[in-house]
Amino acid sequence: MKRAGIYIHWPYCKSKCPYCDFFSRVAKVDQDELIKSYLDDLIYYRNLNNNYHISTIFFGGGTPSLISPQNIEKIIDKITSLWHCSENMEISLEANPNTNHDNLFSDLKQAGINRLSLGVQSLNKNDLKFLGRTHSLEQAVSSIEQVVKTFDNNSMDLIYALPYQTARDWKQQLEQACQFGFKHLSLYQLTIEENTVFAKRGINGASDEVCQELYSLSEDVLSSHGYNRYEVSNYAQSGFECRHNLGYWEGFDYIGIGNGAVGRFHIGKNIYNTFYPRQQELITPHERAEELLIMGLRLKKGINKKLFRKNCGSELDECTNQENLQKLIRSGLITNTETSLKTTAKGNFLLNYLIENLVK
Ligand SMILES: C[S@@+](CC[C@H](N)C(=O)[O-])C[C@H]1O[C@@H](n2cnc3c(N)ncnc32)[C@H](O)[C@@H]1O
Ligand code: SF4
């Protein structure tokens, strides 16, 4: 049996944030009807391939904390009735503090969620306003306290490198983030995406120099508090890496459900990009090698060559431009051993350049 994760995408939000280009809408929907269609899609994929063993489920968005805990439970129950699932399955959900009410977090836990990732974005009142977040700092802190108390496996998202942000401001937030006792932190540099309100307003992100300075600062502060950066933007205390996202970076299959979700799905020996509604597009061996290279180099430990062979079907060395690789090694941007290929600290800032040169 092949290991896979399941990604459940809920593309609705209470409001649209001005920096966000994720597939999400603000709309009134018949939630029960939609959940029925999610359950049908799960059955559809199970009938296409019944040879998966499910190790993780991830409810992402949009804002999946808008799904009622009863409906979350229905989805989890359906998955466990359809597939063979790991005993210690990781079941994550992204929550936005603006959806917190009554006993939301304990109800989610009761429904089967065992890892909660909270989208706080900033621990500074002015930043929250700048980012157009609809929750207050007080709501964020109250949600943080409930999440940390309710879930042993917990995470918080923060956005940094705001155009006016100083190293001092950011350091203060990092120190505060560590005090809350999260097991995992995701720190994203603000990117100004095309067609967002921020782009239309002509807002510029921080300069490359400032981004690099804040990036290094993040790693220094977090490592002094016991967090290891295991991926470009992700930090965890030992044993609390997000197993679902590791599955993407290491090239394991996943089933995508919901109209903004994609999947990587095997039918027989072929791997497909799957997307809504029930569409499949064959991925060529060349495309597959390229995506596994792009994903794998994001990991601090780099690409495990044995795993690459298992999930790609080809040898990593045969899929990379060996002449360019030697140049990148001589420039101190990458290291290549018999077992792995990984970026150096210097190369980590030049990921796109490395990929451009390594892809054959
Ligand atoms: C799919 S979003 C969902 C999170 C949830 N809806 C929320 O807003 O709290 C996942 C994360 O991506 C990050 N993100 C979204 N847009 C971004 C941008 N333009 N720049 C940097 N990070 C961004 C945020 O940290 C967010 O928590
Ligand atoms: S950042 Fe989160 S809440 Fe805001 S629009 Fe994007 S997905 Fe929705």
Structural summary, described in words:
The chain is of the alpha/beta class and 360 residues long. The chain has a domain at 2-245: Alpha-Beta Barrel (TIM Barrel). The chain is 40% helix and 25% strand. The protein contains 14 helices and 15 strands. The protein has helices at 31-48, 69-82, 104-111, 125-130, 137-150, 167-179, 197-200, 208-224, 243-250, 285-296, 305-312, 316-319, 322-330, 351-358, and strands at 2-10, 52-61, 84-95, 115-121, 153-160, 184-189, 228-231, 234-236, 253-257, 262-267, 270-275, 279-282, 303-304, 334-336, 340-343. The strands form three sheets. A nine-stranded mixed beta sheet has the order 7-8-6-5-4-3-2-1-9, sandwiched between helices. A hairpin with a 2-residue loop joins strand 10 and strand 11 (270-275). It is globular, with a radius of gyration of 21 Å. The protein binds S-adenosylmethionine and iron/sulfur cluster. S-adenosylmethionine binds at residues 19-20, 22, 60-61, 63, 94, 96, 119, 121, 157, 159, 188, 190-191, 193.
Please give the number of β-strands: 15
Mean pLDDT: 97
Q: What is the CATH first-level class name of one domain?
A: Alpha Beta
Rounded to the nearest angstrom, the distance between the terminal CA atoms is: 31 Å
Which structural class best describes the helix and strand composition? alpha/beta
Radius of gyration: 21 Å
> What is the H/E order?
EHEHEHEHHEHEHHEEHEEEEHEHHHEEH
Coarse morphology: globular
Report the helical percentage. 25-40%
The hetero molecules present are: S-adenosylmethionine, iron/sulfur cluster
Query: Which sequence of strands runs across the widest sheet?
Result: 7-8-6-5-4-3-2-1-9
CATH fold category name of one domain: TIM Barrel
CATH architecture heading of one domain: Alpha-Beta Barrel
Instruction: Give the DSSP E fraction (strand runs of 2 or more residues).
Output: 15-25%
Tally of helical runs: 14
Largest sheet, if any? 9 strands, mixed
Quaternary structure state of the chains depicted? single chain
CATH homologous superfamily placement of one domain: Aldolase class I
Low-confidence stretches: none
